[in-house]
Structure formats: C-alpha cells, structure tokens
Design brief:
The chain is of the alpha+beta class. 53% of the residues lie in helices and 7% in strands. The chain has 8 helices and 4 strands; from the N terminus they run βαβαββαααααα. A 4-stranded mixed β-sheet has the order 2-1-3-4, covered by helices on one side. Helix 1 packs antiparallel against helix 6 and helix 4 packs parallel to helix 6. It starts with a strand and ends in a 5-residue tail after the last helix.
Length: 201
C-alpha cells in the first residue's frame, strides 16, 4: 500500500503514525497537496492528505478513517484494539486543538498567502480558534496522567500530534498555556518510532 502525505500535515501524521503502530508495510509518497500533484488529484478529488491506496487499488481518505482502518488491521492483542472511553476523550480533545491550529494556518493562507503572517490572527474567527487551542491544551493537561508511556495508541498519537503541531506552527507562542505534565510526557516518549519518524518538518 502507499500513503500520500505532506511533511507538515497533522492529519497525515495521525494516519502515518497509526499505520506504524499497526505494523503495516507501506510506501510513502511525500508531496505538497497545495501544488495539486497529479497522483493525489487522481486518487482523491478533495486533493487532501492523507490518502491511502491499498494494494488492490482501493483508495482510503480522511485521517480518522485511516487511523481506524490501521487499528482494525493490527494483530490480535494489539493495544490499538482496546480503547477506553478516556482514550477517546483524549483523542477528541487533541483533535479539536489540531483542527483549531490548522484553521488558523489556512486563514493566514487565505488572507495573505503567507503561513507566517499574522494579519488574520486578529479576526474574531481566529480568536475563537486560539481560545480553542488554549482551553484544549489546558484540558488535555488534566488528562496527562491517562496517557501511556508504554504504548502509543490513538490517544497518545493524537496528543503528541496536537502538541507538536502547535509548537511547529506557533513557535515560542506567548499564549501557550503552562502544561508541564504534557510536556514531560511528550519528552519521555520521543523515542517511539510512530512519533519519532513522523515529526512535522
């Protein structure tokens, strides 16, 4: 199978990391979806990553669906197959943080075509997204004790993804709340292949 992704997309990272945790063998096609590469457009009319092409030609799209597929493909007894309600809670809160961050970045691109420009950030919609990130990170901090150091599942991958994407797109942000437990958990688990091999760049 082949996974199409960009090096910066947190959505593609979730799919990539879950496939690694599931032990799946796959090829990577690193591309820029904004350039509308021919292979991506042909496979996914939405022109988004992640896009997963199975060996039989079936095309799978959307990060959470690919993540679910990876969990179902994992061997019996895999940690990916046993998800508790609190793990779903963590994954959902982390997803909200990630989506808010992406929406700010897309807003910047629409307004100025420069992902680093901040003109859009004062817009009321952008301010709501920032509030979502700040509140989400604070709430995620309260759930840090439920994150595993042993296995990286949907909760752990989603939490690391949210933290890393915020830090990647908003480096040294003065609005980032104090989240010592989350930061310590992330640092302890940097060695896991599903996280180490998928860091945004």
């Amino acid at each position: 199978m082949k996974l199409m992704k960009s090096a910066t997309s947190p959505y593609a990272r979730l799919a990539h990391a879950m496939l690694i945790e599931a032990g799946e063998a796959f090829d990577l096609d690193i591309l820029n979806p904004w350039a509308d590469p021919e292979q991506l457009v042909a496979a996914n009319p939405a022109r988004r990553v992640p896009t997963l092409i199975l060996d039989d030609g079936t095309v799978m799209t959307e990060a959470m669906l690919i993540a679910d597929y990876a969990a179902k493909r994992a061997p019996e007894g895999s940690h990916l197959k046993a998800i508790s309600p609190v793990q779903y809670e963590i994954a959902g809160r982390a997803w909200g943080i990630t989506e808010a961050a992406v929406h700010v970045i897309i807003g910047r691109k629409i307004v100025s075509d420069d992902l680093a420009a901040t003109e859009y950030d004062s817009h009321p919609v952008a301010r709501r997204r920032y509030a979502s990130m700040m509140n989400g990170l604070t709430q995620l901090e309260s759930l840090a004790g439920d994150l595993s150091d042993r296995h990286m599942g949907i909760a752990e991958i989603s939490a690391a993804n949210a933290l890393d994407y915020v830090d990647f797109r908003f480096p040294k942000a003065d609005w980032r709340p104090d989240i010592p437990a989350l930061d310590a958990w992330r640092a302890r688990n940097a060695h896991h292949p599903s996280l180490a091999e998928t860091v945004p760049s």
